[in-house]
Amino acid sequence: MIEAVAPRTRNRRGTIALVLACVSLLLSLIACGVVGLSVGSDGIDLLPVQSGPEVASAAQVEAIAQVTLPPGSVLLVAVYRNGLETQLSAKFRIPRTELDAFVATANFTAALAPGLRAVDATHNIGGGNTWDPETATIIAGLDEEQPLADGTRRALLVDLDAPDAVTVYLYASRG
């Protein structure tokens, strides 16, 4: 007597593995598509990690850059961004007689160096045309090599062109 061969049953483990592999492939393709959209979206960040530029008050300038604005200071423009890195750019005018006190109370880790252009147009956080450190002819600047204890790095450009007041360009970043 000849026995009939039983039909082969599918291997359930193999089927489950195949289904899981297909689901994994589908999820990987979706993830790659999201990354591709965020990278190639013509300047639109679909996964933002940095806020847009926001106007900063004098108190925010003092807090972020860890400086104290002297009496008689006029804040001309100040902008900051938060996210993975905090960045601040501020332009203000102070009486020339207050410059030394301002630098001393800020505890900069570097001294003012005549002719050093430590801040330029690339430090302009907010855009716009009021940030113009390259127009200054008589300058002094400082660029801290060592960050502060919380990681804040600061750079400063002082425009010494006017006889009674100085215009200070301050850039600070942390992160």
Structural overview:
This protein has 175 residues and is α+β, with helices and mostly antiparallel strands. The chain is 25% helix and 25% strand. The protein has a seven-stranded antiparallel beta sheet, covered by helices on one side. It is rod-shaped.
Number of helix segments?
Answer: 3
The structure class reads alpha+beta
Count of individual beta strands: 7
Helix content: 10-25%
State which percent range the strand residues make up: 25-35%
User: Can you write the helix and strand succession as a string?
Assistant: HEHEEHEEEE
The Cα radius of gyration reads 29 Å
Enumerate the spans where pLDDT stays under 50 for 5 or more consecutive residues.
none
Shape: rod-shaped
Q: What is the chains' assembly state?
A: single chain
- The average pLDDT score comes to 85
| Main sheet overview | 7 strands, antiparallel
Q: What order do the helices and strands come in, and which of them pair?
A:
Blueprint: H1 12-39, E1 54-55, H2 58-65, E2 74-81, E3 86-95, H3 99-105, E4 113-114, E5 139-143, E6 153-159, E7 165-174
Antiparallel strand pairs: 1-2, 2-3, 3-7, 4-5, 5-6, 6-7
Question: Quick recap of the structure?
Answer:
The protein has three helices and seven strands. The chain has 175 residues and is α+β, with helices and mostly antiparallel strands.
